[in-house]
Amino acid sequence: MSDHKLYSFELFPPRNAKAEESLRAARQELSVKNPSFFSCTYGAGGSTRDRTQSTVLEIKNDGQPVAPHLSFTGEDESIVDQLLSTYMEAGINRLVALRGDIPSGMGGLSGMVYANELVAYIREKTGDHFHIDVAAYPEIHPQSSSYETDIFYLKQKFEVGANSAITQYFYNAEAYFHYIDRCQAYGVDQPIVPGIMPITNFSNLVRFSDACGADIPRWIRKQMEAYGDDAESIAKFGVDIVTKLCDQLLEGGAPGLHFYTMNRAEPVLTIWDNLDLDNRR
Known about the structure:
The protein has a single domain, classed as TIM Barrel (Alpha-Beta Barrel), CATH 3.20.20. Helices cover about 45% and strands about 15% of the residues. It has ten helices and eight strands. The chain has an eight-stranded parallel barrel, surrounded by four helices. α3 links the parallel β3 and β4. The two termini are about 15 Å apart. About 5% of the residues have low confidence.
């Protein structure tokens, strides 16, 4: 396995013209760090399909590496085929293949839903053109019954053609290292890059985390609660916590870091500079 570290930034497509300008400004600031790639999310059931595609193509046209997210939930095969063709023609060679969220009101869906099926479909249609990233869950997917089943599904994704994985965010380095040990015991040796969520708005983070099953350690919750409305203290504490987490992960052998930027440059750049990532590639 290469010692080269991968550092990437995740964005989401803007909802309106004002958000579009804000995203461009944040991306310009982030691009100075020469990330391995930007990724761009894909809403439930393809709800952001057009905005995702236009954002992805703009990033590519600006000469920056980009990895579109792609899911099959609620989508017709022809739409997925069109996206794959568009990305190939644009010279994009990396994708993040996800099961995706089921849109509210759609109930049970037939057809391809699971990420391993999507990975297999991409390989069938495009061969080895794309490097395919998939999702991994150090604290276990909320719908999985056990560590064993969760790792079994991750292994399936690699067996049908995925190249590497990006994790859901977490705040306990030991959870990641334990997960890596368990994966390796099951014969999974592909790179699994930690997903990193800077802490900027604690109430939003709690809501996200409760919904997706990510654990916020009790001591972090209590300290954040103690700061109340003191946004400056929350921001400083959040940067310190995430900087230490990232340092532990890199020192422990993590293959890189994938930052969930929430379309904001400053928190990520502060953590980047704290870690001196320019010199830790």
